[in-house]
Amino acid sequence: MSALEDQTILRETATRVLDAHGLVLEDVEIRRGGGMPQVRLVVDLPEDQLGSADLDAVAEASRALSEAVDADDAVLGSAPVLLEVTTPGVDRELTQPRHFRRSRGRLLALTTADGTRYRARLLAVRGEDLHLRQEPGRDDRGRTLKLPQGTPERPVIPIAKVTTARVEVEFDPPADLAQLLADAETTAADHPAAQKES
Predict the structure, then answer these.
(1) What CA dihedral angle connects 61, 67, 72 and 73, to 10 degrees?
(2) C-alpha angle with apex 108: 105 to 109, nearest 5 degrees?
(3) Rounded to 10 degrees, what is the CA torsion of 55, 124, 159, 102?
(4) Is 3 left (phi over 0), alpha (psi -120 to 50) or beta?
(5) Is 0.90 surpassed by the pTM of this model?
(6) Along the 198 residues of the chain, how does pLDDT read in single tens digits?
(7) Which of 117, 98, 113 is nearest to 168 (CA)?
(8) E-state strands within the chain
């Protein structure tokens, strides 16, 4: 089995190098085409950190990974390989609990198994539950839309019931976002089942 097929050494090497740069390995994608194989390493911040990975840190980690690959044929083999280090795009679908933990504070568009759609800010992840604050957005005149009658403003949804979820691009997050997240952590810890969707 080639080094490209058995990614054990690649993953161990990448994890070690990325850890030194404050990053984690999110995924490994290998593309084989007509020419040189392409290895794409998707990296991110650890799940307990908010924000986006610093591009300078990603570039430094990429250089260090290239050096590690060049120094040891066991990582990717001796044949030429195109190595790319990148961060997840904003259009990445959130599928794992760690994806949601990394998205605390972000505005999400998500759908649950019963077909209910939410446009909501993810305030906290407690265990396997998402603590949200619905933000219905604005109409074409800039007026704030209202939630349908009887819709909870702060639903709690089990991750297992989410069928699709993506981060929505937003240019003006709330100025009090840090306080919202801190308050939500306290509320989620004190009342974990409040307004939980069944």
Answers:
(1) 100
(2) 170
(3) 10
(4) alpha
(5) no
(6) 566 677 888 899 999 999 999 999 988 888 887 788 899 999 998 888 877 788 899 999 999 999 988 888 888 878 888 889 998 877 788 988 888 988 888 899 999 999 989 999 999 888 889 999 888 777 788 777 787 777 788 899 999 999 999 998 877 777 777 777 777 777 766 655 544 554
(7) 117
(8) 24-31, 38-44, 82-86, 107-112, 117-126, 129-134, 156-158, 162-167
